[in-house]
Design goal:
single chain; alpha/beta; Rossmann fold; 4 domains; eight-stranded mixed beta sheet; three-stranded mixed beta sheet; 18% strand
């Protein structure tokens, strides 16, 4: 905690005031357009033109492209109308798509400075524009308008800055060598830690991450530093190590952090108490974990390496655990708070569950089976003994269904979506849906997962298939967020559990933000393709899957993994429950 001198205190307050005023002024511009509002449509355009799974992120300044990632300014407000600002985003997206198709980017491993990258982008702009105007003639008008704007903006005799128009060259990154492992880690990396993140703040845009690997030996050998000035600043990593005490001071330093370029990150095995968050999905400098020697019973599962189109045999260790802690007040509060929702849910599911289905060729029934009657006359006229099963009967079909509810309880579930805490939505839905499934005597199980490297994926069974719901229901509230999201390993273990059920129809319902990630290499294409392969494996064993998410960003990941009609993105707990009812009706119809 800082102890400010009077002059420091006054300076800090003034700095906060003017910075907040500037942001508010920019945000209130009527014609301003924010990237997050147009990103879904721009992504579709980029994917259509390039034929690649392009993702769009906020740029630090002018932006560019790197592999399948496009970087664009977070806000465009310099033009006079909203239409012009949207047109600028459209022009830049099409421009980057053509640039990517032509392969114009750094391909070497050198660190090119900003000036060289901007100059290279300008040199190659003519080639890109020629192809752009040919494929999309409307962009010629856009280009003239935007180029004239930046030229008129330049001071007399000054060279116009066209970097926002043509961007900069960025370096396409290659896969990292699997031999690059993290060394000298403490025992904390070998087990999943349950300490909670207390503060989360969104950072400025980050285009490139260089991860600095640190171990305990480096910290012990760190040179002692004396600081004589208490100034609220933060600096980029410069190679000097300082002790990490684990205190949650993030909010106190938020103003200083806003000025820092988050290009460098320091990776440690200690659990963070606060998160300065920047979205980035590339694996360019993420190292794979060193072997962890965690004790206890575990199962090993393969993982799919899409670049080589083969499995890494017995690559992931899954530690099955039974939840023993209970939180009875949470269960009672959930029922009390959602009493009307539960009654509505019960009514909807009763309607689905009590539907009668016609059983053909029965010995007795309410009506004749026309097909059976026809066969009877054929048998009589041909001299054969006819069957007496000539009736239709409306009888309840025998239950032949197992449902496994799989909850993602990684640290991302500790965040909020549309004012709802994600982990609470997952737990409340599990309780309410579990109540109904138990009433109708459906074979079901509730499980949760999180991970910390491939060597320690935790799989928590809250309610086993053969476990009494009246005991298991008090365990749901005791589950808390922890670790990361290695979805593939969790899906494979869920399949193993369903393989043991003798029911005909088997379903896995995943509730997650849909974004694979882990402490070691499990981001981006690698994680997405492993999940896709795990789902193919389940499908081959006649195990159905469906994904539900209450996080808006899931729309960029779930379609790539689950495909159309096998996922749904929702905004509220009520919508999530309603979606599960519709899914249940679909399941019952198939069973």
């Amino acid at each position: 905690m800082f102890e400010f001198e009077p002059d420091e205190y006054i300076f800090t307050k003034f700095a906060y005031y003017f910075k907040g005023r500037k942001r508010k002024k920019q945000a209130n511009l009527a014609h301003a357009v924010n990237l997050h509002d147009v990103k879904p449509k721009l992504s579709l355009i980029a994917r259509a033109v390039t034929g690649k799974s392009v993702e769009i992120f906020e740029a630090e300044r002018e932006g560019g492209y790197k592999n399948n990632n496009f970087f664009l300014p977070s806000t465009v407000s310099q033009f006079e109308t909203e239409v012009e600002n949207i047109s600028f985003y459209l022009f830049r997206t099409l421009y980057l798509s053509i640039q990517k198709n032509l392969g114009l980017n750094w391909e070497d491993s050198l660190n090119h400075d900003l000036k060289a990258s901007q100059d290279k982008a300008f040199e190659t702009s003519e080639k890109i524009l020629k192809e752009l105007f040919y494929q999309f003639p409307i962009t010629l008008e856009y280009h003239h308008k935007f180029r004239d704007f930046y030229k008129n903006k330049a001071k007399q005799d000054a060279v116009a800055d066209l970097s926002f128009l043509y961007g900069k060259w960025m370096r396409n990154s290659a896969e990292e060598s699997p031999d690059n492992t993290l060394k000298n880690f403490t025992d904390k990396v070998k087990t999943a830690d349950n300490k909670q993140v207390k503060t989360t703040i969104k950072s400025k845009a980050v285009e490139e991450i260089i991860s600095v690997q640190v171990d305990q030996k480096q910290l012990e050998d760190a040179v002692l530093q004396h600081q004589f000035e208490k100034v609220e600043t933060a600096e980029e990593f410069g190679g000097n190590w300082r002790d990490m005490d684990g205190d949650d001071d993030l909010e106190d330093h938020s103003n200083a952090l806003d000025e820092v370029n988050m290009k460098y990150t320091v990776r440690v095995d200690d659990t963070a108490h606060s998160v300065y968050q920047a979205d980035f999905i590339e694996n360019t400098t993420v190292s794979e974990s060193a072997e962890a020697y965690a004790e206890g019973y575990h199962l090993s599962y393969d993982e799919w390496e899409y670049s080589k189109r083969k499995y890494k045999g017995n690559f992931c260790k899954v530690y099955p655990k039974a939840v023993v802690e209970t939180n009875m007040p949470y269960y009672k509060q959930t029922l009390s708070k959602n009493k009307s929702t539960l009654n509505g849910l019960r009514k909807m599911l009763s309607s689905v569950n009590n539907k009668y289905q016609q059983q053909r060729r029965q010995n007795q029934g309410e009506a004749f089976d026309i097909d059976a009657i026809t066969d009877l006359f054929v048998d009589v006229n041909s001299g054969h003994t006819p069957s007496e099963k000539i009736y239709l009967s409306k009888r309840k079909k025998e239950k032949d269904l197992s449902i496994l509810l799989l909850l993602d309880i990684s640290l991302s579930s500790d965040g909020y979506a549309n004012g709802n805490k994600v982990i609470d939505v997952e737990k409340q839905v599990s309780i309410l849906f579990g109540e109904i499934l138990d009433e109708f005597n459906i074979d079901f199980s509730i499980n949760a997962f999180y991970s910390k490297t491939r060597n320690h994926s935790s799989y928590l069974t809250i309610k086993g298939f053969d476990e009494d719901w009246n005991k298991a229901k008090f365990k749901v509230g005791a589950v808390e967020p922890s670790g990361y999201t290695r979805i593939g390993a969790a899906l494979r273990h869920s399949g193993t559990l369903l393989d043991k059920r003798d029911t005909k129809n088997k379903w896995i319902i995943l509730i997650s933000d849909g974004k694979p990630n882990d402490y070691d290499k499990y981001e981006g294409k690698y994680g997405i393709n492993d999940v896709k392969q795990a789902l193919r494996e389940l499908n081959e064993r006649q195990i159905n899957s469906y994904a539900l998410a209450i996080e808006a960003q899931a729309k960029y990941y779930l379609p790539q993994m689950f495909g159309q009609n096998h996922y749904q993105i929702l905004t509220t707990p009520v919508e999530l429950l309603q979606s599960m009812v519709k899914l249940y009706e679909k399941i019952k119809h198939q069973s």
